[in-house]
Amino acid sequence: MGATFPNMFVSSPLCCPSRSSILTGKYVHNHGAVNNSVDGGCASKSWQDGPEKSTFATQVKTAGYRTFFAGKYLNQYGFPSTGGPGHIPPGWDWWLGLIGNSRYYDYALSVNGTRQKHGKLYSKDYLTDIIRNQSLHFLDSVDASPDPFFMMLSTPAAHSPFDSAPQYEKDFVDWKAPRGGSYNVHGKDKHWLLRFAPSPMEETSVQYADNIFRKRMRTLLSVEDLVQAVVSRLEDKGLLYNTYVIFSSDNGYHYGQFSLPEDKRQLYEFDIRVPLMVRGPGIKAGQTITDPVMNIDLMPTIIEMARGKTPADVDGRSLMPLLLSTQLEMETGAPEWRSDLLVEHQGEWALHAWPKYNCPHWWTMVTGCVPDCVCEDSYNNTYSCVRTLSSRANLMYCEFQDDENFKEFYNLEKDPHQLNNAINTTDPNILKFMSERLKELVACSGKTCNRSEQNGNGDLNYNT
Questions:
Q1: Burial 212-232, CB ≥16 within 10 A → b, else e
Q2: Interval 38-50: pLDDT, tens
Q3: Please, what is the Cα angle at 289 between 252 and 34, to 5 degrees?
Q4: Catalytic residue of the set 15, 16, 385, 444
Q5: Distance CA 281, CA 4 (A)
Q6: Which sign does the torsion angle of CA 220, 225, 227, 228 carry?
Q7: CB–CB of 409/423 below 8 Å?
Q8: CA 384 to chain centre
Q9: Which of the listed residues 120, 158, 236, 437 has the most CB atoms within 10 Å of its CB?
Q10: 70 close to 88: Cβ distance less than 8 angstroms
Q11: In the 3-class helix/strand/coil scheme, how is 333-374 assigned residue by residue?
Q12: pTM of the model as a whole
């Protein structure tokens, strides 16, 4: 029922930076929310004074749309240090924003600027269902207005603490996390954080990862209910075939890949790829679009769908030429598209890791050290990567900001699971070229990002 994008990537494999990219259409180095902390720009005053004033919400509002938001916004939203629940981001008419990070029970919402506390009763408080019910309520109100509408439904699922609805607690009891090519494999030639992970994993870590996988799947059953209810209501009201529907996520996830029990934050395919499906007027049903696309493309796409005007400083590009490519190809030829994209992550860490995680060998500068003291992030797990994907090349090149000056390179045509860091066995001309591409991308802004994403060198043999 629409288009599927199997090559959808995020600008950062972490919640707040990725969500900020979705909202603004900008790479992380341009919107400034580099991690999930206030000091890292997440929902901070600098975010509110700058990037938050130009999002797809502000642009579709300017184009005459009524706007509705429900669910998780940014991890630090709604706290006293970030404006409290009275802060309603510009562009939203109906606002039900979760205060803080993902929760299913025992949370508070900002309901149009007023704090609303929720407890532990499923029938009244389960957040995914609250989002569903409020979105249906909003849809029931659209008949009273001639204006078009835009909705963003941002569920806590499948984020921790992984609380499923009671009717789904017994589902997937026999399921295990995917055992792909990199599962429980030692990252022997990768950044130190992966080299330090014990491999093979302790049995407690294996069971932990499998249990998290099952819990996440259960939370998604309520998301499935939400999607079905919203689509059914659109159809009942005669609106479905005149409405664009976009489904995606803010980051990938791993369950035991390279012996890391569970989290995100890494540069590998399992953490930077997310689903993307789009349906709506003029979009051919059942098509698969393989061009590499990003979360920064959602903002200009939504604006074009709303017939608004995309700001000149947006880094992403509208997906509409790809979505409507059958018609456009007949008129103008196949649309030109990117071959390179940028992934950025700034590591997070706890100042005193030992008391927090009870891991005596980890004193400081790490975080996420559960289970079995396997840490998922550190202060110098800070990297930038250029991901190249075209008919000629399928590559990943990364540079870390650490005292090793560490680099990683993968030819995914030969090594789809990124098992072997080929930085020491690859043609130096290729590495030099990729490093130059990376330098261009980390400095790009607006239209210069579009130019930097075009791989203009046709002479290199990428299969070396």
A1: bbbbbbbbbbbbebbeebbee
A2: 999 999 999 999 9
A3: 35
A4: 15
A5: 15
A6: positive
A7: yes
A8: 16
A9: 437
A10: no
A11: CCCCCCCEEEEEECCCCECCHHHHHCCCCCCCCEECCCCCCC
A12: 0.96
Q: Residue 428 in 3-state DSSP?
A: helix
Find the helix packing angle between 298-305 and 15-24, rounded to 10°.
30
- Tell which residue, 86, 226, 95, has the closest CA to residue 155: 226
CA pair distance 207, 146, nearest whole angstrom: 54
Distance CA(9)–CA(300), nearest Å, equals: 16
Angle between helices 203-236 and 127-140 (to 10 degrees): 10
Contacts of 400 (CB under 8 A, 6+ apart): 191, 380, 381, 382, 383, 406, 407
Location of structure tokens 């005669």: 238
- 77 Cβ contact list (under 8 Å, min separation 6): 43, 87, 97, 98, 99, 100, 110
- Collapse the DSSP code of 53 into the 3-class scheme (helix H, G, I; strand E, B; otherwise coil) and give the result: helix
| Maximum Cα–Cα distance across the chain | 65
Distance of alpha carbon 256 from alpha carbon 14, whole angstroms: 18
CB of 212 within 8 A of CB of 255?
Answer: yes
Distances from the Cα of 299 to the Cαs of 13, 156, 396, in angstroms?
A: 18, 21, 25
**For residue 395, with 0-12 CB atoms within 10 Å meaning exposed, 13-18 middle and 19 or more buried, which class applies?**
buried
pLDDT tens readout for residues 237-274: 999 999 999 999 999 999 999 999 999 999 999 999 99
201 DSSP assignment: P
**Residue 15 bears catalytic tag:** yes
Quick check: 380 pLDDT over 90? yes
Exposed/middle/buried for residue 84 (C-beta within 10 Å: 0-12, 13-18, 19+)? middle
- Give how far Cα 232 sits from Cα of 143, 226, 227, 229, 241, Å: 16, 10, 8, 5, 12
